[in-house]
Amino acid sequence: MLGKAEALVKRQHQRFFRKKATGDTNAGRGRQPTVNSDQGHVFQSSHQAHTMNTVDPSSRRERGQRNYIDTAVRFPVAQGMMDIDTTLNNQKPSETMRNEEVKELRKELGLAEQKIVSLEEEMAARDKDLIRLHADLEREQAVRKDERRLLDIRTQELQDAHAYSMRSDTLSTDELVAKVESLNAEIYQVSAYMADSMTFGARVDFEAVRAEAVHWFGSYMIDLLCSTINEETRMQVVQVAMQAALVQSCADFISMWHIERRTDENLSRLYAKIQATNTQVVAGRWRAMTRSGSKYESLSDVKKEWIKTVVRKLAIVLIFAGWTGVGTNPPWEASTSFLIKRYGERIEEIVHLAMDLDRGMGEGIVSEDIVIFSVGGGSSFVPDTMENGDGEFTVLDSDHVLCTCELGLKVSRSVQKDGYSAILVKPKVVLCSTMSDIIPTV
User: Fold this and answer.
1) Claim: this prediction has a pTM higher than 0.70
2) Where are the compositionally biased (Polar residues) regions (predicted)?
């Protein structure tokens, strides 16, 4: 503020000296300076005093200078000081207002800072809530994911159960009858072909496999194979024995639940319980699902194991029939190698037909149990359930079955139910009396 006053005084001085310079110039030109009424009054009084009295020129000049200073300097300075006071007085309220504004702004700043702190605390609290909600969301998503997985599992189970409950037969009984007839025809042709294409000599005694041979074929059949007979009769006996070996191999394998013996026994007992406590439809569907997943889990292994069993039984027939191909080689290895090399394709065809029949019976029919059946050696001949493979003639009551030469097919129910059985295809058998007519001395 003092700076403004000093500037005002400085401007007054500058104005004064400009006026003085102008006045000197006018005086030199014979002009009188223009003064205000007060100044005119001063000069008029001085002039009157000058005219009235004679005054020393130096004194007169000194008084003029004092008057000039009073007029030109003191008055402007006084006027400037008054202006300065006025300015300062005008600025004081502005300064006060400015201080008030500063105080107000500081107050607002303090409130704003408090608001910022409050908002930061609120944001921190919300961040914590957000983290907690995010964790809750992740847990909820994990729960929903588990629920979705369980729902998918339950849905699949319901779909499987629905398919299981709605599953119907995919094959008819007539189709199964056609399959078993095709298998029987192939067995007959292969047996006849093998018997016709082999040569036999003197029988070699192989006691190491005799017990196994008797178990499979019976002692009477082994005695027939070992008997001293002509070539034509031997070929007939060998053909019957090979038919019996192939038929029994197919019947045993089709009846199995699994190629491993213990698993087969367990599944067989379990199915008997299911049959006794459930309806046929439920039992049949369980059978279809179980057999497809157990017995034929590895198709190549099943086929390989079955071929091995068939070849082994056929080799026993060759050995006891005196097949000359044995020579000096170990008879067992020689027999099996010969059969696989020469008759492997025909044996595989029989296995293929038997597997097709097996899967059709076990998996294609669920409304009832259809089973393969054959007649064991030594059983009595029953015309209602079997046929004589040698043709229609009167069979004595004392006659017995030597072996089965063609497989039969029947519908079966568990004994716990009603034991109902309906034969679809009668098995064909070879009677002991038939072979006795061919070889009376045995």
Assistant:
1) no
2) 33-57
